[in-house]
Automatic annotation (TrEMBL):
<comment type="similarity">
    <text>Belongs to the binding-protein-dependent transport system permease family.</text>
</comment>
<keyword id="KW-1003">Cell membrane</keyword>
<dbReference type="GO" id="GO:0043190">
    <property type="term" value="C:ATP-binding cassette (ABC) transporter complex"/>
</dbReference>
<keyword id="KW-0732">Signal</keyword>
<dbReference type="InterPro" id="IPR001638">
    <property type="entry name" value="Solute-binding_3/MltF_N"/>
</dbReference>
<dbReference type="GO" id="GO:0015276">
    <property type="term" value="F:ligand-gated monoatomic ion channel activity"/>
</dbReference>
<feature type="domain" description="ABC transmembrane type-1">
    <location>
        <begin position="283"/>
        <end position="472"/>
    </location>
</feature>
<keyword id="KW-0472">Membrane</keyword>
<protein>
    <submittedName>
        <fullName>Glutamine ABC transporter substrate-binding protein</fullName>
    </submittedName>
</protein>
<dbReference type="InterPro" id="IPR035906">
    <property type="entry name" value="MetI-like_sf"/>
</dbReference>
<keyword id="KW-0813">Transport</keyword>
<keyword id="KW-1133">Transmembrane helix</keyword>
<keyword id="KW-0812">Transmembrane</keyword>
<dbReference type="InterPro" id="IPR043429">
    <property type="entry name" value="ArtM/GltK/GlnP/TcyL/YhdX-like"/>
</dbReference>
<dbReference type="InterPro" id="IPR000515">
    <property type="entry name" value="MetI-like"/>
</dbReference>
<dbReference type="Pfam" id="PF00528">
    <property type="entry name" value="BPD_transp_1"/>
</dbReference>
<feature type="transmembrane region" description="Helical">
    <location>
        <begin position="287"/>
        <end position="310"/>
    </location>
</feature>
């Protein structure tokens, strides 16, 4: 019996060793002159994806021009503002440029470049709103975007004017909340709000810019000083040769609409036609993430589930503990802990895709372990007793008698777990994986057609999940024959 126990423990040790090796080997060797830069996904005109799904905007053009001027390369990672900031703090990214306001609080954590843009915060309301000043917000809700200067400004005056703040992760949802009447107003940086209105957002600006602040390029405090110096030097050169002015006028001047979708077909079919390559790429990433995750989750879940039915108290307790921990942790928290928390402690970078696989492996694997234990325990105890009475050792009795019966009970649950894993991949957009949900955010940042784009993505999910549900029902019927 001890040999069996050690065999299981050895298998687990080998499995986790392979996983760690895969993790380390998956981190690509980065050339000295290539820097990975994080940015937002929904902050036009500073960063957004154009019709060719290439990231453009003031920030994007500026960092690329500076890189060319200073002789280094940049790899842009559109992970969203919060993920970008946390990834720089944990060493996952070398720097962040995302319309990031320079504040005293942030200067305690980041080293900032010299300011490259100055902006102010404005209040916008629905076109038919009668609100024209801050004093009319008393008792009402206002919408803001996480981490922006607009959010900081709103929170600084909310007690004075008696309104409540509702926070969103992207600009489109913030605008929609005001247009639908859920919030009375929103606070946004002036150029961003003006650009959104030019794109067709049904809002109007009713205040003059306030709380003027400066945007800066940021790196982790005390790190990447060479990159920071190169940015400052390149910025000065671009301002001197007139290239900086050309970049800003391209997105804020009279011809600022040429990189937008203002003249595009924004019908459902038009949006599908325009974004079919991006949607297909996001769908493939979702499917690939799901398949790889469910394979690792199944291995992890089966091993932990078998530990739970082994006649050994230590293995039983370890199984119960692992299931309790990974089923109890919210998937979002687990993803951020693995992607940003662990690198902060170890200094070892974890690619977003690998972090997503590990997250789903532990979370989904815990649920698989639970129904593996349940499936085995559902087999009549007399089956094991009969097998043992015939002289079969525990391991062989489990393999030859119990598991074949238990698997028939488990198969429908495995398919259901595949469906759940497919849906859970959408949460991993928080760490910047360009799956279907993150792709939707990027498309919306360009055309601000939130309702239509989310409807298209919802239909894609529903079609795939419906097919998998039919498969699950068919397998369940076959297992009863």
């Amino acid at each position: 019996m001890k040999r069996k126990m050690w065999a299981v423990l050895t298998t687990l040790a080998v499995f986790f060793a392979c996983l760690v090796t895969f993790n380390l080997s998956a981190t690509p060797a980065k050339a000295e002159t290539t820097y990975t830069i994080g940015t937002d996904v929904t902050f036009p005109p500073f960063e957004f994806a154009n019709k060719q799904n290439k990231y453009v905007g003031i920030d994007m053009d500026l960092i690329r021009a500076i890189a060319k001027n200073q002789g280094f390369k940049v790899k842009i990672k559109p992970v969203g503002f919060n993920a970008a900031v946390q990834s720089v703090q944990s060493g996952q990214l070398d720097g962040v440029i995302a319309g990031m306001s320079i504040t005293k609080e942030r200067e305690a954590t980041f080293d900032f470049s010299k300011p490259y843009f100055t902006s102010g915060v404005v209040m916008a309301v629905a076109k038919n709103s009668k609100i024209t000043k801050l004093s009319q917000l008393k008792g009402k809700k206002v919408a803001v975007k996480t981490g922006t200067s607009g959010a900081d400004y709103a929170n600084s005056i909310k007690n004075k004017y008696g309104f409540k703040v509702v926070t969103f992760d992207d600009s489109n949802n913030m605008y929609e909340d005001v247009m639908t009447g859920n919030s009375a107003a929103c606070f946004e940086d002036s150029p961003v709000m003006r650009y959104g209105i030019k794109q067709g957002t049904k809002l109007k600006i009713v205040t003059k810019p306030a709380e003027n602040g400066s945007y800066g390029f940021a790196v982790e405090k005390g790190h990447n000083q060479k990159l920071l110096k190169s940015f400052n030097k390149g910025l000065a050169n671009l301002k001197a040769n007139g290239q900086y002015k050309k970049i800003t006028e391209k997105y804020l001047g009279k011809d600022a609409s040429k990189d937008t979708d203002s003249t595009s077909d924004n019908s459902f079919f038009g949006l599908i036609k325009q974004n079919k390559s991006a949607l297909w790429s996001g769908f493939k990433e979702t499917l690939w993430l799901t398949v790889v995750s469910i394979i690792f989750a199944t291995i992890f879940g089966v091993l932990v589930g078998l530990m739970g039915v082994f006649p050994n108290k230590f293995l039983n307790g370890l199984s119960t503990t692992l299931i309790y921990i990974f089923r109890g942790l919210p998937l979002l928290v687990l993803a951020l802990f693995i992607y940003t928390g662990i690198p902060s402690l170890t200094g070892q970078k974890i690619p977003a895709f690998v972090a997503g696989i590990i997250t789903l492996m532990f979370n989904e694997g815990a649920y698989i372990a639970a129904f593996v234990k349940g499936g085995i325990n559902a087999v009549d105890t007399g089956q094991m007793e009969a097998a043992r009475s015939l002289g079969l050792p525990f391991g062989r009795a489990m393999r030859k008698v119990i598991l074949p019966q238990g698997i028939r009970i488990m198969v429908p649950s495995f398919i259901n777990q595949f469906i759940i894993t497919l849906k859970d991949t959408s949460i991993l957009s928080i760490i910047g994986i360009l799956e279907l949900t993150q792709t939707g955010k990027i498309i919306i940042a360009r055309n601000l057609q939130g309702f239509k784009v989310w409807t298209i993505i919802a239909i894609i999910y529903l079609v795939v999940i419906t097919l998998l549900t039919w498969l699950s029902n068919w397998v369940q019927k076959r297992s009863k024959l």
